[in-house]
Amino acid sequence: MAPDVHDRGRAELDALWARGRDFLGSRYALLGGAMSWVSERNLVAAISNAGGFGVIACGAMDPDRLAAEIAGTQALTQRPFGVNLITMHPQLDDLVRVCLEAKVGHIVLAGGIPSSATIRAIRDGGARVVAFAPALVLAKRLIKSGAEALVIEGSEAGGHVGPVSLTVLAQEILPHIHDVPVFVAGGLARGDAIVSYLEQGAAGAQLGTRFAASVESIAHERFKAAFVRGNARDAVTSVQLDERFPVIPVRGLANAGSRAFLAHQADVVRQFHDGTLSKDEAQLSIEHFWAGALRRAVIDGDVEHGSVMAGQSVGMVKSVQPIAEIIDDLVEQAIAAIVKWQQRTER
User: Fold this and answer.
1) CA 337 to CA 345: how far, in whole Å?
2) Model's pTM, two decimal places?
3) Which domains does the chain have, with CATH numbers?
């Protein structure tokens, strides 16, 4: 590609995601998805240092553990990064305080609709609020409550997912939300796909699966190898066997553990019918099946019985690459797509 043509493509990309870049303070409007056990200081700093915007996954951390993770990240990067907090965490207020005291610039609220009081406390403390919007009506409510940016995540994503694809969410939400930047997420692994959403009005994109299998990720080598081997159809959501015992949908690679989970549900339902277990006991047994399973997969490398959370974009993970190389690939793919569009319109 001729340098002047490439420069024109890059200039257009910069214009398309200028709002996202300005909001995040990063070179590229590319957020790292917050993945428990994976999105820690090393990966987060690597994403930010490469021009993206890393996000720490607080998950079940207590305030002291989060404070240490933030400090560890700040020691590895001078670039902006954020912290993802789960709204249902019993110590949410304390976690917010830790972030504000550490001068974290952006707090991402996930796992439920945050209260206006939490959003107000974050903004009063000097940080910016990002929230997940699973539907248009909730997007409008979050903006009214003070959210300064939204993430719309499709069911193609890994981990805990909603029921609607990004393709549909984008059509439902992007044409109607203009007050705040909206970042798209779920199933994204190529820059040309990201450009298509930028042209629809998105301000940037969030990716998790591509980054989870990076060189800088602390995930076990067997975990990364499973991503390289995996196909899109291998990343499936957890199955609910009986509607009386709800199962929160989680997308991950099918393995012996997911098959055992089905057998476990069947056994629990049988015990409930026999009167061996009460309804509450049966529900708890199902919910506790995966306790510690994500850590077993990510840290210990048990990819057969652990929970290998991955999005459907796992089929596009062809090798374990450095973060900087992944981001460069995404940006160059985006520029190439823009250049093709520019050349078509000039004919």
Assistant:
1) 13
2) 0.96
3) 3-218+318-338 (3.20.20.70), 231-309 (no CATH)
